[in-house]
Design a protein that fits this description.
Layout lengths: L2 E7 L3 H12 L4 E4 L15 E4 L10 H18 L4 E2 L3 E5 L12 H11 L4 E4 L2 H7 L10 E5 L3 E4 H14 L3 E3 L4 E6 L4 E5 L4 E9 L11 H4 L2 E13 L13 E5 L9 E4 L10 E5 L17 H13 L6 E16 L5 E5 L2 E8 L9 H14 L12 H9 L1
Parallel strand pairs: 1-2, 1-12, 2-9, 5-14, 12-19
Antiparallel strand pairs: 3-8, 4-8, 5-7, 6-7, 10-11, 11-12, 13-16, 13-17, 14-15, 15-16, 18-19
The structure holds flavin-adenine dinucleotide.
Length: 400
């Protein structure tokens, strides 16, 4: 039986990138996925993802985003595909809105990260200044905004396809539509058993199974993860479609005014192609927890689409109409404070796991894949620091 240097479980955003960088470094690598990425069952589909460099979730994420931007551009050069459109990210915040992705002071963090990493930004001090430049946003008195210019759109399925193609070209072996059932570390290696009765061995295993990752880690760890169903909407544009063209509309994150003491936010993208495609804009659901194998993929037109339009879209984006041209469901894998968790499994140094979901992981996946490959082959990441995402740091956050 062939023994691999590394087996990667999950070929989505992070696992795919790690597989590519492992193969590029000369490691003998096998990547296994239970579906055929890019697919619609996990967390990496729906056309687009926001990328930004001045990261509100914490300044420790900025170097990951900046490195990823370089890597996306490298992959564009190698594949001839457009993966990243840099047209800025506007973060709008009301006077009383501070929390986003479970992070206090999100807006302040954007400014701090921009200054620390010399990221070009433009600030809009009041609602009038925002409205003059971006009339599509019905901002309120007290709103302010910051435009991160080193930001924009990532084409999520294209990124995954490009990564897996490059991984194959670099010599990785990929096994699609094959479910990993068991990962058994021992003193001499790790055995991986699949649903079709195959058995593989490797020196090390990386678990990058997204919403299914909690099934593979010890109970003391899995209890920190919650998987939630999210809905993506493309709402009809009923007036002024030019306002949403990429040259007039950056990606946007909007911390809405607090209602009944509750914080909420929406995020959206510029128009892709014809105005009839609608505008992708949505809000985040905080629960309930769901089983990734039992997700309701139907979107209810009344309790979901109509309610979302009334509550989150109509008051803020009056050019959009109530009809959803398209909807999709997707999974968040949440850990407290939306932290990434990247560490060895407490049961074995040979098993590394990486969970970057929490709603903001895609933009960082290229650099995470590279760093994980370095950690697995060299013992330490070289380009970016993964220590802020170790388990001991999560425990600090949980105590805080
Ligand atoms: C609605 C939504 C909006 C988002 N918006 C943004 C955004 O704007 N910007 C941003 O940066 N991030 C965003 N994110 C987060 C980002 O998309 C995720 O962090 C990222 O895609 C997660 O990548 P992953 O590799 O962990 O998971 P995935 O890409 O889902 O990959 C996990 C893979 O593991 C495979 N797998 C699972 N179990 C097994 C098994 N037993 N055997 C073999 N294979 C297995 C799955 O099939 C899957 O392919 C968003 C997420 C969602 C859901």
């Amino acid at each position: 039986m062939t023994k691999y240097d590394v087996i990667v479980v999950g070929l989505g955003a992070v696992g795919g990138a790690a597989t590519y960088h492992l193969a590029k470094s000369g490691a003998k690598v096998l990547g296994i996925d239970r579906f055929s990425p890019p697919h619609k069952q996990g967390s990496s589909h729906g056309d687009t993802r926001i990328t930004r460099a001045a990261i509100g979730e914490g300044v420790e994420y900025s170097e990951l985003a900046l490195r990823s931007h370089t890597l996306w551009r490298d992959m564009e050069a190698l594949t001839g595909e457009t993966l990243f459109r840099r047209n800025g990210c506007l973060t709008i915040s009301g006077a009383d809105a501070v929390v986003m992705h479970d992070v206090d002071a999100f807006f302040v963090n954007v400014d701090t990260a921009a200054k620390r990493f010399a990221i070009p930004t433009r600030t809009f001090e009041d609602a009038a200044a925002i409205k003059t430049r971006y009339p599509q946003f019905a901002v309120q008195p007290g709103d302010k905004a910051i435009l991160d210019e080193d930001a924009g759109v990532l084409y999520v399925e294209r990124c995954i396809t490009a990564t897996l193609e490059l991984a194959t070209q670099a010599g990785a072996q990929l096994l699609r539509d094959t479910q990993v059932l068991q990962i058994e570390p021992s003193g001499s290696g790790v055995a991986v058993a699949t649903g079709d009765n195959q058995r593989f061995t490797a020196d090390r295993v990386l678990i990058a199974a997204g919403a299914w990752l909690p099934q593979f880690v010890a109970a003391e760890l899995s209890r920190h993860f919650t998987v939630t169903r999210q809905v993506l909407y493309w709402f009809e544009i009923k007036s002024n479609p030019e306002r949403f063209r990429p040259e007039n509309c950056p990606v946007f994150i909007w911390q809405l005014p607090r209602r009944n003491g509750v914080e909420s936010s929406i995020y959206g993208f510029p128009l892709e192609g014809d105005a009839g495609n609608g505008l992708k804009v949505t809000h985040e659901e905080s629960g309930p927890a769901t089983d990734p194998d039992q997700v309701d993929r139907n979107v209810d037109p009344v309790t979901e689409t109509a309610r979302t339009y009334r509550t989150y879209i109509e008051p803020f984006l009056p050019d959009l109409g109530p009809r959803a041209v398209r909807t999709a469901t997707c999974l968040y894998t949440r850990v407290d404070r939306s932290r990434f968790v990247i560490d060895h499994d407490p049961r074995s140094e040979r098993v590394l796991f990486a969970s970057p979901c929490s709603g903001h992981g895609f933009k960082h996946s290229a650099a995470l894949g590279e760093a994980l490959a370095e950690q697995l082959t060299l013992g330490q990441s070289q380009h970016v620091d993964l220590t802020p995402f170790r388990l001991e740091r999560l425990k600090e956050y949980l105590r805080a």
